[in-house]
Specification:
Blueprint (H helix, E strand, L loop, with lengths): L1 H5 L5 H13 L3 H20 L5 H22 L2 H18 L36
């Protein structure tokens, strides 16, 4: 699920690189293939219209679940544990914060300030008058 959650965020470039490294396990060709698949996922999500976005997200989440599952099954025990740990760490690092904290499909016209997180304080002054 982390793949489809991060695909439309600013963190995508770093996330996709880390996923590809995990999947590639030191093999440049496997890493390149993973990058191609990740890019296709991101493109599909970006191209999805409002009415189909949730369905496309579900399809790609299942595809990546299968991809990771197949890869884990193909590995020996030590590599399987290492990959599973890496995927868990990556998912936790890039997961949406509890209670929301994500913005999606927004359009802002004019001055805008956005802040997410718990227990934050933000003061915004737009314009010269106070």
């Amino acid at each position: 699920m982390a793949v489809v959650q991060v695909a439309s965020t600013d963190a995508w470039a770093w996330f996709r690189t880390r996923v590809a490294r995990l999947v590639g396990r030191g093999d440049a060709a496997r890493e390149g293939e993973a990058l191609d698949r990740l890019d296709r996922t991101a493109a599909s999500l970006l191209a999805a219209g409002d009415g189909e976005r949730d369905q496309v997200r579900e399809v790609h989440a299942r595809l990546w679940q299968g991809e990771f599952g197949s890869l884990l099954e193909s590995l020996g025990e030590a590599d399987r544990v290492r990959l599973a740990d890496g995927l868990r760490e990556l998912g936790a690092e890039f997961a949406a914060p509890p209670g929301g904290g994500t913005l999606r499909d927004n359009t802002f016209h004019g001055p805008t300030a956005v802040q997410t997180g718990d227990h934050n304080q933000q003061t915004n002054d737009f314009g010269s008058a106070r």
